[in-house]
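Appendix B. Extra example for self-study. Work through it before the problem class; the solution is given directly after the inputs so you can check yourself.
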Amino acid sequence: MTTFAPSRPVKRTTYIPSMELVPGVIAGSVPGIARMITRAEAGYPEASAALAEIYKHTGKAHIVGITGVPGAGKSTLVSSLIRALASDGYKVGVIAVDPSSPFSGGAILGDRVRMSDAAESCRAFVRSMATRGHLGGLARSTLQAVDILDAAGYSPIIIETVGVGQDEVEVVTAAHTIVVLSAPGLGDDIQAIKAGILEIADIHAVSKSDKPEAPATVSALKGMMALGTYRTGSNWSPPVLPVSSVSGERIGELKDAIGRHWVHLRESGELATRQRSICRTRILGTARHLFQQKFDEKAGGLEKYIQAVVNRDIDPLVAAHMLLGWDHEGRIT
Amino acid sequence: MTDTTITGQDSGATADSEVQSPGTIRVLVAKLGLDGHDRGAKIVARILRDAGMEVIYTGLYKSPNEVVNAAIQEDVDVIGVSLLSGSHVPLFRELGRCQRQLKAEHIFVVAGGVIPEQDYAALLDSGVDAIVPQEARADLIVTTIRNLIAARGRI
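Solution. Structure tokens for the complete assembly:
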């Protein structure tokens, strides 16, 4: 095998300070937005001031969360929505979240496969994001990425969660409008009256409506809605919409329902409540994360407690108190 | 079995040199043109995932322009292209042209697939940073990417 002589010097890129990226982000520069998201994700301390500056320019976008079981058709639906919204003149942003491996930390981010044609032809911004160990259906920095797109003038911004089970409902405290996508043929009406994911929907969509099982799923969801399980104190009634991305059937109706819900939030005053709840969760979530980070840094003393717990000398609760430097009744000393 | 990568760069810098940690490596695995076979690309995606990288797969039949635009939005460190169709010379030339036009030359390009040795020079000329021969072992793909990025530092 021939080895080639070096033909050019090593590529080196100068690190552009994050603050210098801010004007570009606000002006809508795609490379600037992309790089800023990378830095928010990586959690560079150097980027915090820039993110704080960007945050001042946010609050204009309609944030739409799309969630559902793996394989329900979320990415395909998002791709159809990008086209429908772009043809109405919207500048659509998408953050598509997929899980990171708990073993290697790596990830396969496959949502773009379904969206790339729509993204390319509609000039939408599509970013794939890995959870990097965060549970609940989103990544820790998903909302920072949403801020960046918001400041850059994208609206609506669609967050596609990881494929979720029954309980990963974090998106409810991240978005203004939640679309829960159900796939036909995956369960009976008992599934539909369970607590969790189905309760959070502002709009129910049933994918693959070209399949024969779809009407049964639609009826099960409508039956559930008839029992009145939607959030109390709201006069919004979540529609149940069968959609098919294959035939394009009723994608327009879904797009209209998303728009109607946005109008409803603003006119009813519910938007202010949601904004507060989003901010509350973000502050708490970030504080918990920072606390956890600091804690992990000093958790080096863990080993000796593990052996003590294995030996039954102390129980896990006492070990945790000792690790935290608290007394045996959990008082901070 | 080979354990050599063909690179267009002075690969003097090693993974453990003095540069700052580049963080999580992001790779766009792309299929260009009318090459309709992506078993290999998916296996490579899986190998990179298991090496702790975040891999975005484009799907089949992408144009060089689409691939570069996707790479910019995803802010990847590397575009990995698998080509089996024999049209690698013009496609990589076009990919390089799109990178220059869209100011995305900072993104490394690693080529793999079925690429005859006599075409290596043309590919390196087009802006390809490394060629991983088809008989290479899995870990060579990983170290090739890590070495390129370690030499670059964080962006």
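Self-check: Residues 138-152 of chain B form the longest helix (15 residues). If your reasoning did not lead you there, revisit section 3.
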